[in-house]
Specification:
The complex is a heterodimer of chains A (280) and B (342).
Chain A: H1 7-35, H2 44-51, H3 53-86, H4 89-100, H5 107-118, H6 123-130, H7 144-168, H8 174-180, H9 185-196, H10 198-214, H11 217-222, H12 230-239, H13 244-279
Chain B: H1 2-24, E1 26-31, H2 36-51, E2 54-59, H3 62-71, E3 80-84, H4 85-93, E4 97-98, H5 113-116, E5 125-137, E6 159-162, H6 169-179, H7 188-195, E7 201-205, H8 208-216, E8 222-226, H9 230-234, E9 240-242, E10 249-259, H10 265-276, H11 278-286, H12 301-306, H13 311-315, E11 317-319, H14 322-341
Parallel strand pairs in B: 1-2, 1-3, 6-7, 10-11
Antiparallel strand pairs in B: 3-10, 4-10, 5-8, 5-9, 5-10
Helix pairs in contact in B: 4-14, 6-7, 7-14
The chains are: A mainly alpha (280), B alpha/beta (342).
Chain lengths: 280, 342
């Protein structure tokens, strides 16, 4: 039916058309709306956004939250993924099940659970006061710290899963071989595990970073609305001031941040490769 | 041949007429998602039985539904919308709604004065309002008599305030402005006073559910909230009271509007009239859904205690005029964000 050379293109055409119509087109319309307000080419929306020192503060806070959450998830994610892969086949299935379980609960419910746990008379404070570690309960809620806790709990599973699948594909005896040849654990991780699981790292890291910078409920509820993030600022502009141009600008900046994060993570994870290639 | 053509034409006309009448027997309402089962029982079902038509309801928050009206401006799919007064004022300004012929509404004269023409030009009729005031723990502090209590040291680290994005944000800033003799419409004093509490406030709550939870968890002793949350707060296992500060209470109003170019205008007018009727307003108030805007509604004490009820209560509300909200909210939000950042 198709010429041999056209077959692959024809086969991916339906999916490509779907992606273009359902995802790329709306994004293009959104971005076009920010640079062509009222049909004329203008950067006024961006100029107005970046001229406000508050905006820069919000961008920086959002990037900081994204980076910290991603790094913490990577560290905890590797620890968890290594433990899961190391466990027996049966235990592995159960552990993966437990990792996935929170994903089945609404992020809103999970966030509210933290309000209960971190409250003045919540689980955590009752525990440390009960153990006599402190007289006064700590104020944990409504701080940037609470946002980190909530977001890490929210996104850790989507970091662990790609890492588990990457580690599972590792040849069984490479670690043993490296150890035999005298590599310490840090070297094994840096020169063996990290390069060989970088696909999982890039996928997980991109998902976590994008999730963290665009999350609305968790920063709004656990951080309190005192500390604006780009997502809460976006909500303000849509729900209160009805300023769709400004909201479009914020959305475009979020998209740009996501793309940048994905490119950077890919860079970082392949830089060793290129260094090695050059060395050869 | 001619007869056959005529017969076919007649069939087509009959089909179109039937389709048109079926379509006529529907009215599309855009409304808040809250308490839909009660609305079904108290308003939609009785209305459907009476008009022989069907009420189709599209729910969402005021801002989202306003955006939808804008998107479908040229071919509106909605006939009647229940909006906040500020959203209605914006819809009027953007030409999305048309003036209501209030002379044709039999229940219009029964409405309280402030509900009769809330956005001007008869673009809307108020169907309910709510008060905004301070709810507090009666076992932790003396009775609240003034909005000034929010700034008292007793409540340091023990209050939650509404974020500017919530329904209560502007009313509370407005009362702070009134309490500290600020000017309008800039409201700078009120916004500065509310944002100055950022170190004392446990949080600025993004939704009333958060405030309720904080009361329940003994995190806060006082918070300004909307009256519609009072039934939920009263159910908590903590001693709470609704205050009547000497400066008065603020609040807000929800209104009904007629969408411009509505396809079922006659039914839309009937639905608006039914909504404002003494029977429907009494039923919705008795179910604690909406405070009545109809002055002839008589309520049992249990419901009257919870809702904004009676001419005195209605008169005591300091509502921010919707045109003022519309013209100034961007500046208020900018002042708010600046106050929070410093």
């Amino acid at each position: 039916m198709f010429g041999r050379s056209h077959a692959p293109a024809a086969l991916v055409a339906p999916a490509s058309l779907y992606v273009a119509a359902a995802f790329l087109l709306p994004v293009a319309i959104l971005i076009a709306g920010t640079i062509l307000p009222g049909g004329k080419l203008s950067a006024a929306g961006y100029v107005r956004f970046f001229a406000d020192p508050l905006s820069l503060e919000v961008v920086w806070r959002t990037v900081r939250i994204g980076i910290v959450v991603t790094i913490v998830c990577i560290v905890l994610g590797y620890a968890m993924a290594l433990a899961i892969v190391d466990a027996g086949t049966k235990a592995r299935g159960q552990l993966i099940g437990l990792t996935i379980l929170p994903l089945m609960i609404s992020p809103v419910a999970r966030t509210y659970a933290w309000v209960v746990i971190l409250g003045r008379v919540g689980l955590f404070n009752n525990l440390i006061v009960g153990l006599g570690l402190t007289q006064q309960p700590f104020r944990l809620l409504f701080s940037e710290g609470a946002v980190y806790v909530g977001l890490v709990q929210l996104f850790l599973p989507i970091m662990v899963l790609p890492l588990v699948s990457a580690l599972e594909n590792l040849p069984a005896d490479v670690v043993a071989a490296a150890r035999t040849l005298g590599a310490d654990w840090f070297t094994v991780f840096r020169r063996l595990l990290l390069p060989l699981t970088r696909e999982g790292l890039v996928i997980g890291g991109t998902l976590v970073f994008n999730g963290a910078v665009t999350a609305y409920v968790t920063p709004a509820v656990l951080g309190g609305t005192r500390n604006l993030s780009l997502a809460t600022l976006l909500y303000q502009q849509v729900a209160v001031t009805d300023d769709l141009l400004a909201a479009g600008v914020v959305a475009t900046i979020l998209i740009a941040m996501s793309v940048t994060a994905s490119v950077l993570l890919r860079r970082v994870s392949t830089s060793r490769d290129r260094a090695l290639t050059r060395a050869r | 041949m001619f007869i056959r053509t005529l017969a076919i034409a007649a069939c087509i006309v009959a089909t179109i007429a039937a389709a048109a009448s079926a379509e006529d027997a529907t009215v599309v309402l855009s409304s808040y998602g809250i308490a839909q089962p009660q609305y079904g029982k108290d308003l939609y079902s009785p209305f459907e039985a009476q008009c022989g038509c069907k009420v189709v309801v599209d729910t969402g928050n005021s801002a989202a539904r306003l955006a939808k009206l804008e998107a479908y401006k040229d071919n509106p799919d909605t006939d009647v919308a229940a909006l906040s007064d500020a959203s209605a004022a914006q819809a009027a300004k953007e030409g999305l709604i048309e003036p209501i012929d209030v002379g044709a509404l039999s229940n219009f004269p029964k409405l309280y004065q402030i509900a009769q023409d809330p956005v001007g030009g008869h673009f809307a009729v108020g169907y309910t309002f709510y008060a905004t005031s301070i709810v507090y723990r009666t076992d932790k502090m003396p009775p609240v008599t003034s909005w000034q209590v929010l700034w008292s040291p007793t409540l340091n680290k023990r209050i939650a305030l509404p974020d500017i994005t919530t329904t209560q944000g502007v009313p509370v800033a407005y009362m702070a402005n009134l309490t500290f003799n600020g000017t309008m419409p800039d409201m700078k004093v009120g916004i500065a006073k509310v944002t100055a509490l950022k170190d004392s406030a446990v949080t600025y709550y993004p939704s009333s559910a958060v405030a309720t939870q904080l009361f329940q968890q003994d995190e806060i002793w006082a918070a300004p909230v909307g009256r519609f949350d009072w039934p939920n707060l009263k159910k908590l296992d903590v001693p709470l009271a609704w205050s009547m500060p000497q400066e008065g209470q603020s609040g807000g109003m929800n209104v009904l509007v007629l969408v411009k170019g509505a396809k079922h205008k006659a039914l839309a007018m009937k639905l608006i009239d039914a909504w404002l009727s003494t029977e429907v307003q009494t039923a919705l108030a008795s179910d604690l859904v909406d405070s009545p805007a109809n002055s002839e509604v008589k309520l049992a004490p249990a419901a009257a205690e919870i809702l904004v009820y009676g001419p005195e209560a209605v008169k005591s509300l300091h509502l921010v005029p919707p045109d003022v909200v519309l013209a100034n909210r961007a500046a208020w939000v900018a002042d708010w964000n600046a106050g929070m950042a410093h």
